[in-house]
Amino acid sequence: MSNNTRGALVVVGSGPGIGSHVARTFSSHGFKRIILLSRDPSRLEQDAKFIHSTTPSADISTLSIDLSKTSEIPSALVQVDKALGDTPLEVVLFNAARVGPSTLVEWPMEELELDLRIKVTGCYAVVQWAIPKLLAVKSSHKPAFLCTSGSIYKDPIPEVFSLSVCKAGQHNLIHSMHKKYKEEGVYCGLVAVGGVVADDRPQCNAENIANKFWALYEQRNDLEVEILDG
Ligand SMILES: NC(=O)c1ccc[n+]([C@@H]2O[C@H](COP(=O)([O-])OP(=O)(O)OC[C@H]3O[C@@H](n4cnc5c(N)ncnc54)[C@H](OP(=O)(O)O)[C@@H]3O)[C@@H](O)[C@H]2O)c1
């Protein structure tokens, strides 16, 4: 496909790490229309500058969304529809997460519910919005729903059990989507990061993770790729 026929990339949960690096990598491969979403508008502007530093021609919109406020997600997605305009949606990256410790038994159930709202219910809300649009462009584009996962979905860490539980549920959702939509022309897949993301990690650095997302997107076959350091 020629680069100038690419549709839009929407990153749900953009930030200085994986989110903006995936957007920058996809922009360097021809995705010039990019929409970044998270809670902090000023931080999103920094993500946009980071992408522009590599792809000055990128047309970037930044919009606020708080996935923990489930009832507000539909109206936030209407704003994404407005920002898309006539540009077809081609790729979604669901990357949002609250990353941090959660001590078993002491962790309040309300906090577990909040984590589930962001990472599972929030992801499902974006799936409901995105899938009809992605199916609609399957004959002209390479539609995909991508998600950032972690090895904890299958090998939980007790000290971050809340995130582990959410990653298991989220992985299961994307696995169902992979089974259902692969033959229908929409690729659904995950990159499972098996360590803390940092610039000095040989594998688990955001740039390498972004490159793995691009390779997975191009391959359009496997459910996931896992990234491990050592
Ligand atoms: N960092 C790690 O060590 C690590 C390791 C393995 C897997 N992962 C996975 O990688 C993904 C995140 O990548 P990253 O750590 O490099 O972070 P990142 O891409 O730099 O940023 C992720 C963004 O998600 C947004 N977010 C958090 N809560 C949100 C909410 N309620 N609604 C909307 N947006 C929200 C945050 O922005 P706002 O605060 O502005 O909303 C944050 O900047 C997650 O799926 C995480 O589970 C991370």
Automatic annotation (TrEMBL):
It comes from the Eukaryota. The keyword Oxidoreductase applies. Keywords: Oxidoreductase. InterPro entries: DHB_DH, NAD(P)-bd_dom_sf, SDR_fam. The keyword Oxidoreductase applies. Belongs to the short-chain dehydrogenases/reductases (SDR) family. PANTHER family: 5-KETO-D-GLUCONATE 5-REDUCTASE, ALCOHOL DEHYDROGENASE, PUTATIVE (AFU_ORTHOLOGUE AFUA_3G03445)-RELATED. This is NAD(P)-binding protein. It comes from Aureobasidium pullulans (Black yeast).
